[in-house]
Design goal:
5 helices, 10 strands, Glutamine Phosphoribosylpyrophosphate, subunit 1, domain 1, alpha+beta, 6-stranded antiparallel beta sheet
């Protein structure tokens, strides 16, 4: 079980701070590693590491990550041991996609082999990383972000709650779920998605 949160804000410099606060409300869902990612000026930024939120934040200063679209994840390891490299978010070969995921991709080994045969390079031992590479493939085929996410989820089997950032689409966070919880919150200057309501309750109406 893992916890995810994503915030799409109209502006402000505290979006990463709110994501970090949301992650603190989700630590009961996983605490062996944590990370956040943002998209800012056409680039994906990622900070992640092994350890509890307080430990990783002390090392990496998670709230310093820029941008008004930020996703975060707290992990309880299923595929791949707890480590910096296995922590979420995961990116694709070109670092144009960042993904956080709660759930289990049942056919990830088959998909990973096929993606490797097509030239993709993997860094982690997780099932989640294949989602980033599948979305990358969709984008490389000329699909927009939503179409690329659909391209990916048509190929995976299992349970998932996913939040996705794409470097070329700075005004959107993409998300999907199947058999894993994901809730939506609406705020005055930002919208939220998370694994559980307490992650954003203080900011929503």
């Amino acid at each position: 079980m893992c916890g995810i949160i994503a915030i799409a804000a109209l502006g402000g410099s505290d979006v990463a701070i709110r994501v970090k606060r949301g992650l603190s409300k989700l630590e009961y869902r996983g605490y062996d590693s944590v990370g956040i990612a943002s998209v800012y000026h056409g680039r994906i930024y990622v900070k992640k590491g092994k350890g509890k939120l307080s430990e990783v934040d002390l090392r990496l200063d998670l709230s310093s990550i820029p941008g008004k679209l930020v996703i975060g994840h707290t992990r309880w390891a299923t595929h791949g041991e707890p480590s910096d490299i296995n922590a979420h978010p995961h990116v694709d070969c070109k670092s144009i996609v960042a993904v956080v995921h709660n759930g289990i991709i049942e056919n990830y080994l088959e998909l990973k082999r096929k993606l490797r045969d097509r030239g993709h390079k993997f860094l982690s031992e997780t099932d989640t990383e294949i989602i980033a590479h599948l979305i990358e493939e969709g984008i490389e085929q000329g699909l927009n972000g939503l179409e690329a996410l659909k391209y990916a989820i048509r190929r995976i089997r299992g349970s998932y709650a996913i939040a996705v950032l794409i470097a070329s689409e700075e005004d959107k966070i993409f998300f999907a779920r199947r058999l894993s919880p994901l809730v939506v919150g609406l705020g005055k200057s930002a919208n939220y998605i998370a694994s559980d309501i307490p992650a954003f309750l203080e900011y929503t109406r």
